[in-house]
Amino acid sequence: MAWDEWEQIKAAAAERHSTQMQLNQLPADPGGSTPTSGSTTRTGGGSGTLRHLNGPWSRAAGTADDLRISTQSTKNGLQSSHTGVSNGGAGLASLSALKTVLTSWEKRLESVRDECESLEPKLRAVARDLGEVDGAVAAKARAVHVSEGGKDR
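^ thats the sequence. predicted structure below, dont judge the formating
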């Protein structure tokens, strides 16, 4: 390959991959649509809107709490369904295997319950904290004066 041909290939590649800054964003919503659920922090300015929805974090916290409750209920039901099995199943070879499985599931359910109990307040805190941060950012954004054609708007 000749040196000139190599230079032409490099120049063509450089043109195709020139360094440019591009901001990827959704187009501004001219209708100002309203979110369907959750509380929100909004600030208008320019052509877009800064907003934060607490809904997803609050729903996740509620789901974690529901799962904690149902896991505890399931564990209680599992324990009560095994009450008296050792007396009625005396002499059965599978009794020790049944007890091992019961203990294993009790530990698993306790682990899930404890994890959900730990997650629920953290998820609620995220919803609260992000809302506070968004409010502070909104106040700072409102304080910025943007001139348009030499005139403040």
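The beta strands are 40-45, 48-53, 147-148, 151-152.
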